Fold this protein.
Amino acid sequence: MTSQTIQTTETPTAALPAFPFTAVCGQQEFREALLWCAVDHRIGGVLALGDRGTGKTTTVRGLADLFGVAGLAVPVVTLPLGATEDRVIGSLDLESALVHGERRFAPGLLAAADRGFLYVDEINLLDDFLVDVLLDVAASGVNLVERDGVSHRHPARFVLVGSGNPEEGELRPQLEDRFGLSVRVGTITDPQLRSQIIDRRLAFSDDPHGFVDRWSAEQHELGARLLTARERLDRVSVPAPLLDRVVQICVASGAVGHRAELVMTSASRAAAALAGALAVTEEHLRACAPAVLRHRVPREAFDAPETIDQRIAETLDRLL
Amino acid sequence: MSPALLPEHAVAAIRVWLADPRCGLLITGDAALRERLVGELAASAHPLLVIHTPELLDPEEAPRVRQASAVLAAAADLAEVPRVVADRCALVVELAHDPERLARWTQPPLPDRPCPRTHDEPISTGRLVALAEEYGVRSAPVEIGAGRVAATAHRLGLPGVEDLVRACVFGPRRTDDPPSATDDQQGSDDHGEDQTRDDGQSSQGSSSDDDSAVSVAAATTPPPRTRRARNAPPGRGGPVVTGTRGRAGRTVSTRRPDTVVALGPTIAHLAELSALRGERVPPTADDVRWQYRRRRSGRLTILVVDASGSMGRQALHRAKGLALAMLDRAYRQRDRVAVVLARGREAQLGLPPTKSMARVRASLRRLPHGGGTPLASALLLAARLATAFDPIAVEVVIMTDGRANIGLAGETGARAREDAVRAAEVLRRAAGQSTVHAMSRTRRRGDDAAWLRAALGAV
């Protein structure tokens, strides 16, 4: 079917540099959420739902590049939509089985994503079976493979970043809850920002290396900030009154389960570390609360995303 | 293909694409012209992704399309093209069926004649965004593509860069949705709706003459999202269930629930083993491979809403309320929902089967009504939708006053009901369960829809 639909004369070319993370316009909340997860992987991932063509993939690629700039060994692995089970969880190493007659394990994408980010574009279209595997592994941090006569266990602690367009299919609620943060990425409407996007994107594709050079100062600055934030994280304290606030917010907004409270605390801590503070303040809390609550508050079957956001904002205004 | 065969702006668009194929080109319209043009253009650029049938594109191919450095696609109509391809191809050239031009069909390929250099200022990106707003287009990939088109056209010295961007980038994508503020009025009268649609079409024809009117409208209300409802071709992208029926799915080496023996993989495995050992290996039970089967999951609820004039406001209101309650249930069970509207001369597909409740709700809210009751054609349409699913998995809910008055060929009177009864029998075979809600305008009448219920074997 592929051969009929698509015909390509494309030859693999040398890898182009990634679009700089700092040069991505808009999508402020998504970028921040990614950075918080980069500071503290325990936050549990980001779910970015919204329109197509809003730079989600570009942003995640930029993040991988940013880790390189910061000198961090954090892999960012993309899970292709058509990935097979073998490719994702790993399987018998066919070559060593056939040539040497040994049963060896060939690691898959989950192993590659250990201590890093696993990005799943169009997560709402992913095969149910793979989604279950991802959930299991993301929750336990261990990938246990029992198949083809191989028994293998390897750590797989990764930050799951998922994106998708809800119009094409909804995500199962269990999966949604596993994501620590959830952001909405909409098409940008501000004309100024839109022309900036065109300008930057064209400049980048005309001269990728030159463009990256021009942004290298910002990239290095952010990279350094990320590094210090990761070091500082353990020393950032969460004052007791603030913890009470966290609980109050979660209760008032009706978020189900303790995960909201845990995630909100660690996210605001990461936000504080990134801002260079040594204690979490209400400002940090306010910055990350919407992303924590958005997919956890109870919703009617027909609530629009905006009404949910508005409800959260009202709750925050009342309590902070 | 001779340039004489193409409108001027199309030639300009193709020149731009040839000079810088990164902006992507989508060719729509007449099939013969399209094939010919694609054939000629496919040979011109080197690293090129050619998509001949975008409507069949597998969602899994989307990343490849997005990342391809140059794309050429062809389809009958922009509305059929999945979003990812439409966004990737900034330039859209429509090849109208035009016998007069066709008569001038000649062999020589596109000449690369030099153009008089113009000294136009390049279009600023701010202007491009303003143009996009004017046409109700809001999509970063398209806007970026437009930027590239404008830059290339300027570099080539083509005259009328802005007209080119209007005609071949934003024009074909114009959204003719009426502003959202008029949603509520929309349902109230039949003519109003047709009027707005006509307006949209006539302005589409002459894209650059009526800007002032459009830009005023665009300035007061933000343009709604694009009207193109289908992001993916029907029958794709949905979830699949594993079971013992359907297409071949994963192969496993041990027997698990819901698996069947997979002959092919078993033989392949034995062949591998034999090759490894250099002799024929007698198969054992361990060598048998098992396979899951996959098929599309879920139930389909088809709402057939009689929105004819005879229903009256009150009944229609009740039908909407009932429909929303049903949707609530379908949402919780993660069913697909489709809406069929019985109104006017022929039933319309209000909404193709979808899981997106936002879309179902929007389609119900702006339910147009008025006109006759083409019940027969509505039931047939529902039956056609149902065929993609197992009959057991399909539930049809019909909300009508039972006064079918338009037959399949448009006749009125007794013939209309006969047609409806025959259509009901077709639907009865395609759908496992049907429910008829009688929506009578007046209470005193008995059950107007009893005949339909009987024909459908419905409850």
Q: What stands out?
A: The two ends of chain A are 56 Å apart (CA to CA). The longest helix of chain A spans residues 216-232.
